[in-house]
Amino acid sequence: MAFNRTEKGDKSEAPRKRVIRRKKKVCVFCTETIDPFTLYRDTKVLSRFISERGKILPRRITGTCAKHQRLLTTSVKRARHIALMPYTVE
Questions:
Q1: Which of 25, 37, 66, 71 has the most CB atoms less than 10 A away?
Q2: Which residues, in sequence order, are bridge partners of residue 50?
Q3: How many other C-beta atoms can be found within 10 angstroms of the C-beta atom of residue 84?
């Protein structure tokens, strides 16, 4: 017996899921000219990349590129070390 595609058990014509494409986020540091050596002193800029619990937000949420995410991480850690920013938020 050969396989008959006209039987009702055939699932080859199942509806496909829609793929939602989101707009790619642009790195803030690439568009603006920010001095990387003084970034740790600017706590207003750094606080945009910190969660409510005091954690550094990942790239997929902030939209920064890999180069500037590394720079941002070291700047936040440096600001925490010299007590410009808290380690945890109450």
A1: 71
A2: 56
A3: 14
